[in-house]
Q: What sequence folds into this?
């Protein structure tokens, strides 16, 4: 793949976790933790996700996610689900849970979504003939739209709609990816197929960046539900 494909892929795969770590640091400081404690929380989270990304990178380099079209392979869907599970489980750790319960957590959780603009990599890959338009156009344009809208949603307090549309975009993109050949037999007859999204560097997007983005949306929904319950118990007086 050309170097610019690597650049935009790593912008998503490294940038989204990095901004998430910054959000955790700021959240920890907002609830009164020392700089050292906040930095430790962010560093542990960053190291954990870096390890997951390294595992995905190694498995992709070994060809695990790119099998012949005649073979059905579960590894991409499995790694995708495991990645979401790891990120969501980390949000339940006591130290992280306290940060996410803070009043400003929703806005902090939304900032990593800004780097979804790196979805332009799908459009570039389509232009150079590496991905089909049936997958690249919805995935790329959807990610760009979410990334551009994120700052405005944060400032206006409309994070609920950002999370709804952001999660819907990811569901559509992953579904179209699987239907057009990412990690399985092609269901939609398109040329080229999306099988290149199962190889380096593009595979880092669905398996290192997207699971974290999905988990951030899910955690945000939990935080929104908690905030709604908190408001409902406030005495009418």
A:
């Amino acid at each position: 793949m050309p170097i610019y494909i690597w650049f935009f892929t790593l912008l998503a795969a490294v940038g989204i976790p990095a901004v998430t770590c910054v959000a955790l640091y700021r959240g920890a400081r907002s609830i009164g933790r020392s700089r050292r404690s906040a930095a430790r929380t962010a560093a542990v989270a960053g190291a954990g996700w870096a390890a997951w990304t390294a595992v995905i990178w190694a498995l992709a380099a070994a060809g695990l996610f790119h099998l012949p079209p005649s073979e059905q392979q579960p590894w991409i869907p499995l790694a995708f689900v495991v990645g979401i599970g790891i990120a969501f489980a980390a949000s339940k750790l006591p130290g992280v849970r306290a940060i996410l319960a803070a009043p400003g957590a929703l806005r902090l959780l939304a900032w990593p979504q800004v780097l979804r603009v790196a979805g332009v990599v799908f459009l570039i890959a389509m232009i150079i003939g590496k991905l089909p338009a049936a997958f690249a156009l919805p995935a790329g344009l959807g990610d760009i739209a979410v990334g551009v809208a994120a700052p405005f949603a944060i400032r206006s307090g409309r994070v609920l709609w950002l999370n709804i549309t952001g999660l819907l975009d990811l569901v559509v993109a992953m579904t179209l990816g699987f239907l057009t050949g990412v990690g399985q037999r092609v269901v939609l007859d398109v040329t080229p197929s999306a099988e290149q999204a199962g190889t380096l560097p593009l595979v880092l997007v669905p398996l290192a960046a997207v699971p974290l983005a999905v988990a951030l949306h899910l955690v945000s929904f939990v935080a929104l539900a908690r905030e709604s319950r908190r408001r409902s118990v406030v005495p009418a007086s």
The CA atoms of residues 42 and 52 lie 16 Å apart. The chain has a mean pLDDT of 92. The chain is about 70% helix and 0% strand. The first helix runs from residue 3 to 30.
